[in-house]
């Protein structure tokens, strides 16, 4: 069964928000063909069984669970520090806490409570003003352009700051990165102002192909680095803060004060070790194929005669990118759900409207399942998706 462009009878307006969300997740996870893994689903028993099966390949499951960060958590910290080439690393339950602690520690060391960062950076957009309300820090913005700040903008900042936070990649701007030379110049400009540099590297793991450098080479540019264990690696939760040993020791003291000294964290640590072993080596392959998928989407949208569209960046910097269309976000989300339910194909997931009225955006992630999609598969799935967008959902 397929939908007609003029069919307006399938818009999902029934049920509570939780019920509608459950329907979307069930549709995406039930799809036979998708570009990346689905959202967490299934039973607790099923997820524990999968974790035990996969975890046996990376850790001795006959060993005891961790207590306040020893055992498997300490092993994960050592593995992370080795991968990033830093002296030490500390596990945190969330990236929000890790970065709060990092920037608070640097404020104490530099004597400046001001952090320079992009207004689209995660601490500004997605943490409810925690830098100011929890840690007593202020922020200064170097640019409003949807891209990382340049060296010139760092040098010309009108206010002093003690730390420069660079989100790599800048997710809300389209998972965009500077070039390697641009990154080095921006870091050097911060040093000229006697500022330390912190990398918000929630997705740093997949940046190496774009820069053409190893993870230790990238991390070496910064004074501290935060990485996530679930955004790209498929872990359950958790993050790490990496840097000099004395800095990490201080961060651990603040981690305790912030409530991050958790009694046991072995499930998250085990899942993170699985991700480092299984997903990390494949990220360059995912990033390369994302360029193929993005090119096929551009070609398909042009062939379909869509009045305006944008695939951003045109050539993705990582394995994630944005797609913009001139249609209603709810109608596009519903079209994707119907395609997953009716055809078993999940091309797009949630659409939002973060830009001008009449435009909608979705984020596309290409991971292991997406490697099987040839350009013609992408164009075919796109055509079937557009056929399900109702006439009233189009702004043309």
Considering the chains and any ligands shown, give keywords for the structure.
three-stranded antiparallel beta sheet, 12 strands, 2 domains, seven-stranded mixed beta sheet, alpha/beta, disordered N terminus, Aspartate Aminotransferase, domain 1, Aspartate Aminotransferase, domain 2, 42% helix, 396 residues
Describe the structure.
The protein is α/β, with parallel strands linked by helices. It folds into two domains: 17-43 and 282-393, Aspartate Aminotransferase, domain 1, CATH 3.90.1150; 63-278, Type I PLP-dependent aspartate aminotransferase-like (Major domain) (Aspartate Aminotransferase, domain 2), CATH 3.40.640. Helix content is 42%, strand content 13%. It has 15 helices and twelve strands. A seven-stranded mixed beta sheet has the order 2-8-7-6-5-3-4, sandwiched between helices. Residues 1-10 have low confidence and may be disordered.
Summarize the structure.
The chain is 42% helix and 13% strand. With 396 residues, the chain is α/β, with parallel strands linked by helices.
């Amino acid at each position: 069964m397929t939908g007609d462009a003029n069919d307006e009878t399938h818009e999902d307006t029934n049920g509570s928000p939780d019920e509608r969300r459950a329907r979307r997740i069930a549709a995406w996870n039930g799809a036979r063909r998708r570009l990346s893994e689905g959202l967490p689903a299934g039973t607790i028993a099923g997820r524990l069984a999968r974790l035990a099966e996969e975890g046996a390949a990376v850790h001795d499951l006959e060993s005891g669970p961790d207590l306040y960060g020893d055992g498997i958590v300490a092993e994960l910290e050592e593995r992370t520090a080795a991968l990033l080439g830093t002296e030490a690393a500390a596990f945190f339950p969330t990236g929000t806490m890790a970065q709060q602690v990092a920037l608070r520690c640097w404020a104490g060391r530099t004597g400046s409570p001001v952090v320079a960062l992009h207004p689209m950076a995660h601490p500004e957009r997605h943490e409810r003003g925690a830098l100011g309300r929890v840690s007593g820090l202020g922020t200064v913005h170097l640019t409003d352009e949807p891209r990382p700040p340049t060296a010139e903008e760092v040098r010309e900042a009108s206010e002093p700051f003690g730390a420069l936070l660079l989100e790599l990649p800048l997710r809300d701007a389209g998972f965009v990165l500077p070039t390697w030379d641009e990154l080095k110049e921006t870091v050097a400009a911060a040093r000229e102002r006697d500022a330390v540099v912190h990398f918000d590297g929630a997705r740093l793991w997949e940046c190496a192909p774009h820069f053409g450098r190893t993870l230790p080479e990238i991390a070496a540019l910064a004074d501290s680095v935060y990485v996530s264990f679930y955004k790209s690696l498929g872990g359950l939760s958790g993050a790490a803060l990496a840097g000099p040993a004395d800095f990490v020791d201080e961060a651990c003291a603040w981690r305790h004060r912030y409530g991050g000294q958790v009694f046991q964290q072995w499930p998250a640590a085990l899942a993170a070790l699985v991700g480092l072993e299984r997903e990390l080596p494949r990220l360059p392959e995912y990033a390369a194929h994302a360029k193929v998928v993005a090119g096929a989407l551009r070609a398909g949208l042009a062939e379909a005669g869509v009045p305006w569209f944008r695939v951003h960046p045109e050539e993705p910097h990582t394995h994630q990118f944005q797609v913009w269309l001139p249609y209603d976000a709810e109608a596009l989300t519903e079209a994707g759900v119907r395609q997953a339910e009716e055809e078993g194909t999940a091309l797009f997931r949630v659409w939002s409207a973060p830009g001008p009225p009449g435009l909608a955006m979705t984020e596309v992630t290409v991971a292991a399942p997406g490697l099987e999609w040839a350009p013609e598969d992408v164009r075919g799935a796109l055509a079937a998706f557009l056929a399900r967008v109702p006439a009233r959902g189009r702004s043309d």
